[in-house]
Amino acid sequence: MKVKMFSYNQLDTYIHHLSGLTKFVCFLLLTTTVMLSFDIRVILFVLILSFALFKVAKIKFSQVKLMLIYVFIFLITNFILTFVFAPLQGVEIYGTEHVLFTIAGPYVVTLEQLFYQITKLLKYLSIVPLGIMFFLTTNPSEFASSLNKIKVNYKACTALSLTLRYFPDVQRDYHSISLAQQARGTELSNKEKLSKRFKNIISILTPLIFTTLDRIELITNAMELRGYGKSKTRTWYAYRPLNKNDYIAMGVCLAIFIASLLITTFVNHSIYFNPFI
């Protein structure tokens, strides 16, 4: 069976055995660590850790290939736009200017600008594996039950669980409708003009929307028939209590977060690491 993007798959790995709450807390701690720092050393550490955890979770490149391509395109576009609209931002941040070469007019390539943009590029890149890993290794029902155990309203938890479950369903429906349309002669490849391909994609999205609405109605009716929402609490069949490994994982991520704050406050005295001074 072909593995779909954003689809949870139960594997026998350390990451999969952690509680959904643990993975959510670790995700927040590590992403916050990266977002609050422009220290390339901290960012590289989280990036290496992210890809190491990718390997531990046995996530295959084929599962995330399309998503990584989109992310790469976004990062390269962001890299170019930053240089076009703020070619000297790195100089302003680090307070020095080491010119490598001049392109034209104000567009001067400096060592500071390259360092700043590479740091920002790695900053975004380090967060992506964490988010993908959370989606692919977390059971939606178990995650919802874990949140409910820390007093999050169970209705909100159920809505979140249904949302996470719905990603692979939408993807499967889109693939099925796309194959059906192509069997009828609808061309979606590069052989067709862009305007025509866009029109053909719209012909796929229309039945996809109606399929989605039908599924929503079906789920709503099923929940109403079971009396969902009438009680103040509910039970969960997929709840997983926290164990030693959960506390170790959260402790390590918390230590990384605190270490990052200490480096920012007492070593760099700024969110930026300045190697030019």
Automatic annotation (TrEMBL):
Residues making up the signal peptide according to the UniProt record: none
Pfam families attached to this UniProt entry: CbiQ
GO cellular component: plasma membrane
CDD domains, per the entry: EcfT
Keywords in alphabetical order: Membrane, Transmembrane, Transmembrane helix
Spans traversing the lipid bilayer: 27-54, 66-86, 247-267
Topological category with respect to the lipid bilayer: Multi-pass membrane protein
Record-linked InterPro entries: ABC/ECF_trnsptr_transmembrane
Subcellular location: Membrane
Domain of life from the UniProt record: Bacteria
Hydrolase among keywords: no
Name of the molecule in the record: Energy-coupling factor transport system permease protein
